[in-house]
Amino acid sequence: MPKPLIIITGKDGQLGFELQQLQQQFSSEFDFLFTNRNDLDLMDAASIEAFIRQHQPKYFINCAAYTAVDKAETENDIAFAINENAPVIIAKVCNEINCQFIHISTDYVFDGEKKSPYLPTDAINPLNVYGASKAAGERLVVENNDKAIIIRTSWVYSSHGKNFVKTMLKLMNERDEINVVDDQIGCPTYAADLASAIIQMIVKLNNDSLLNHSNIYHYSNTGNISWFQFAQAIQAIAKLNCVVKPIASASYLTPAKRSSYSVMDTSDIVKDFGVEIKEWRNSLELMIQNL
Ligand SMILES: NC(=O)c1ccc[n+]([C@@H]2O[C@H](COP(=O)([O-])OP(=O)(O)OC[C@H]3O[C@@H](n4cnc5c(N)ncnc54)[C@H](OP(=O)(O)O)[C@@H]3O)[C@@H](O)[C@H]2O)c1
What we know:
Layout: E1 5-9, H1 14-20, E2 31-34, H2 45-55, E3 59-62, H3 76-97, E4 100-106, H4 129-144, E5 149-153, E6 156-157, H5 164-174, E7 177-181, E8 185-186, E9 189-190, H6 191-207, E10 216-219, E11 225-226, H7 227-238, E12 243-247, H8 267-273, H9 280-290
Parallel strand pairs: 1-2, 1-3, 3-4, 4-5, 5-10, 6-9, 7-12
Antiparallel strand pairs: 8-11
Helix pairs in contact: 1-6, 2-3, 3-4, 5-7, 7-9
Bound molecules: NADP nicotinamide-adenine-dinucleotide phosphate (NAP).
């Protein structure tokens, strides 16, 4: 009997890269097809349906996204095409061919007004275009595919690709002192941990096709910190001499507005899928070792 096929978009991104690292470990159970923009361009609406129908996957993980948060403020159309239109097409086709769709979303769907961890059921109210495009995608994915799973994650980093950790390490090697905002609280996510959680979810779904699950889950490492505290930890773990100073967001203006609080409650994904979630600092240490 052929193995179930998992299609994964965004293979050159952080999460797509980390999923590729798991391919060999799970190759006896699943076939994998990783795609980048050249294999499947999410801007090309017409080709998405044809691609999925041609390959008939059992699982489809959409890691590709328009992720340039500040640029999205001026590239509204492109952000919505990739983060709203494309996931909706995928959701519809997956529904028709009975393929489990797993879509990745963001803490930026929230406005940060809450003072305790956001639940998957909390009201969304994005503050910027990127968040609005992801929120629109979420809503229509669920409307068009009641079995779809959306995983919201936050502050993603990996040894591969561009992210806060690598930027900090570069700046800390170049400068004696850096300023980092201290009034935005969230939780980092090591993409390798999220990749492993997603595969565990698929294994569980594959073993139990009747498994009861919700549409929306939250996943980040555990804990909550400011970007300043995150930078301090990076500096300490990497043993760099640079001085890290806290500043207010008001003195570090960016085109896109950021929320001051985006910690998410991850208990549902633990309860329904039994995934274990590592503490943020342990994962950061591992990532820096892996560099
Ligand atoms: N990074 C974060 O801090 C963060 C936080 C919360 C949620 N998320 C979500 O987590 C998911 C994974 O993020 P990530 O950090 O792995 O993102 P990433 O590193 O920016 O990777 C995104 C990938 O999407 C691809 N892509 C963009 N436009 C495309 C198109 N038209 N067709 C096909 N592929 C396209 C990119 O390809 P190119 O390299 O060719 O552009 C890139 O490889 C995304 O849904 C993101 O919204 C990320």
